[in-house]
Amino acid sequence: MSQPPGQPRLSPQFCFSFGTLRDFLRLSRSSIDDSITQNLNALVTPARTGFDPSSTSKRAPRSFAEPIDPEACQSFKEKVLFPSWKARAEVLSYCGIVATSPDPDDPEATILELEKQRDRERIVDERLDPYSGRFFPREARTQSLALLMRQERAVENIVRSRTWDVIQGRCGTSSQSWQDAMSNWEASQKLSRGDGNPTSS
Fold it and tell me: What are phi and psi of 124, to 5 degrees?
């Protein structure tokens, strides 16, 4: 299995570098989700030895009838799948905030303001020019980023659902949704780090 890209250093510059942002999401999905069948095939071992990260580099064809050890499946989800999903979720969340925040460093801010000023000064007379009332200002980069985030969130939900369907079919796990499984994993991570606050009975 090709390794997913490491968590990028989150900054507004990263979010506005649309090519870099898309590359991170694409590489992360292709290394884990798009190749989920091969990754699960690599977990098929005769002994209940748990998940060995190095085993996913072996992609020998295997029969779908071969059972996958439940412990190996669980280990794959906790050590590979969920961390990859979390890394992408953090990027989408952060860049979503950037998209709705003021952007004083936009290199085209001056041009956008000039266009608005010219629009206010235009003389509109649709009797003489039926197109004079039309004004199509260029889009601020925050607007472009917001649109990209909406698209990528939709893609992310589709990708996760497909991946989870394959895992459910191969690992024979419960009917738990990927949303619940992810939430439970994140909660366990917080508890293991001591971030959680146990509820008093």
Answer: -100, 120
3-state secondary structure 76-137: HHHHHHHHHHHHHHHHHHHHHHHHCCCCCCCCCHHHHHHHHHHHHHCCCCCCCCCCCCCCCC
Burial 123-141 (b: 16+ CB within 10 A, else e): eeeeeeeeeeeeeeeeeeb
Query: 3-state SS of 168-196?
Result: HHHHCCCCCCHHHHHHHHHHHHHHHCCCC
**Whole-structure pTM value:** 0.72
**Distance between CA atoms of residues 152 and 50, nearest Å:** 33
Q: Could you report the per-residue pLDDT of 62-93, keeping only the tens digit for each?
A: 445 466 888 889 999 999 999 999 999 999 99
CB 32 within 8 A of CB 3: no
Domain residues of the chain, as ranges?
A: 12-103+141-192, 105-139
